[in-house]
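ASSEMBLY PREDICTION REQUEST
Request ID: AP-0331
Submitted by: J.K., bench scientist
Number of chains: two
Total residues: 648
Priority: normal
Notes: Please return the full assembly, not individual chains.
Input sequences:
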Amino acid sequence: MAENRKKLLELYRQMVTVRQFETMAGEYFAAGKIPGFIHLSIGQEASSVGVCSCLRPDDYVITTHRGHGHMIAKGADLKRMVAELFGKKDGYCKGKGGSMHIADYSIGILGANGVVAGGLPIITGAGLSIKMRKTDQVAVCFFGDGATNRGPVHEAMNMASIWKLPILFVVENNQWASTTPLEYACSVEDLYVRAAGYNIPGEQVDGNDILAVQKAAEKAVIRARAGEGPTFIENKTYRIKGHYEGDPQKYRTDSEIKKWQDKKDPINRFSRVLFKKRVLSKKIVDQIWSEVQTALNEAITFAENSPFPQPEDAMADLYINS
Amino acid sequence: MTDRIISSSAALAEALHEEMQRDETIFIMGEDLVSHAGVFGQFKGLPEHFPGRIIDTPISEACIAGCGVGAALTGMRPIVDFHFSDFVTCGMDELCNQAAKIRYMSGGQVKLPVVFWCPDGAGLRAAAQHSQSLESWFVHMPGLKVVVPSEPSDVKGLIKSAVRDDNPVMFFQHKKLFAREGPVSEDDYLIPLGRAAVKKEGKDVTLLCYGAGYYLCEEAAEKLAGEKIDAEIVDLRTLKPLDMETIAASIAKTHRAVIVHEACLTGGFGAELAARIQDELFDELDAPVKRVGARDVPIPFSPAMEDFVLPRADDVAAAVHAVTYR
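STATUS: Completed
Returned structure:
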């Protein structure tokens, strides 16, 4: 019981970490501290944290342009993440990647990917490699509803299925592909049905209910480790922020966004469950939010103190001398 | 050890056999590999010797290329067979946005030991979608290496280096040359990527070539010898990295250069090479640099038309005449 309580609290802490990280990123972007553009996952924390809670450090994850949550949930270092967003030398990619290309190969994060659906063929290769090396690792690819309309998704699902690769295809259906709504761009209302075309078990999950997400992911991970093949999980959720920070969002109404906040918010929902189970109290909530804020402040200080790369550092890291 | 006369195709299979024996993380994936040992029989003997390591795939070029990336990132050394080099178009994101950039974007965290093996070239009456020479597209992509061998001995030494390289390598081998034979050592030897070869010494003009262009130059050089024009042939072998040192040494001797490739002329590798020669070796030149390549149309089907658009040894000789005025 105590063990279970600890696990639940850890899930809560992770979700809060993702939320606080994203909130911080939005603020620092608005303040001009983060160059380029960033895509925030506020409202989708149950998906990233729920799925990654079922993984081991040696399992693989590939994520998307909206990938901060998956990285944090897979164990990425906040300091090096913030430094990368700031374009600093101590960032994960020494400032060469930025928000859309953060990677930490030492903990199985095979990278965020700036190309929509770009991760699926690569995760298929990781799955094939696991099978050839005869380990029981699993490989997870997160992608959005928009990605499911791209060709490589279908090639990847087919190949993963015929070879029974240990892969979790996790679509985070946040209902908007940039400015385009799912009901316009997709031939189906529910994305999980597409898995049937590839003989892959598909399941739709309330993507804002972390325990439901975790349950589905756990089942898929067990299946993958047992060599039974891939699973397709559709986490139905909602993107609270714009496609990118600064998005004028003319394509949707405030009332639509409001519907997914408060009661439907994944952190609020989980905390209600935890209060009921007497796992959380007001005091513990305050403590967790404050501890996360402290960790984040340390990360920001680290990033601010890190130097910018020298211009000529742009010429390094292209080829490796073998 | 002695040299034997074997085909380009046999040289490839022999090299890969040696490499796969040496390193069990190497595997080959692509379409139609197992039953015929590759669509051109280029992997003869390998499916039997290495069961499970020659992998047939569905017709899914984007995913096949991406699999090469994913497997290379996770401890394997894949060789991706593109079936026909023309189909790189179906995997361009995986090649150019992923394979070429992943190491750089990650700040050098990872290596990507993957070879994309692309049978290219015209002359088989295969028409516009099965005959192209697209190497220059990839020379333009930082992060990739580009290898285009000509003779069987080059194929063996270069594919072994490509497989051992920790960077993504585009390896273009001309379909029409698979059956072409030449001396190949039985030794386990490597030809480093980025080293050109002076295949014939000469003093009057430098012929810069690679792949099928080499054989045009060889034929042209013989004709020119009859006219007392002594051509030097430099087979570049690797376009990226490029061996400018060997090129410069040859041009410093001949002061004249003709670049020969089968790819169509406009925007071809010859354009890049000509630019570098005029930039870096202007004072050595006694004549403008000439280029010989295919005409700027898709490869047509009907034999007379295909032959018309492809460069010939006569075109090389004509270009040499144009630069060897006294």
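REVIEWER COMMENTS: The mean pLDDT of chain A is 97.
SIGN-OFF: pending second reviewer
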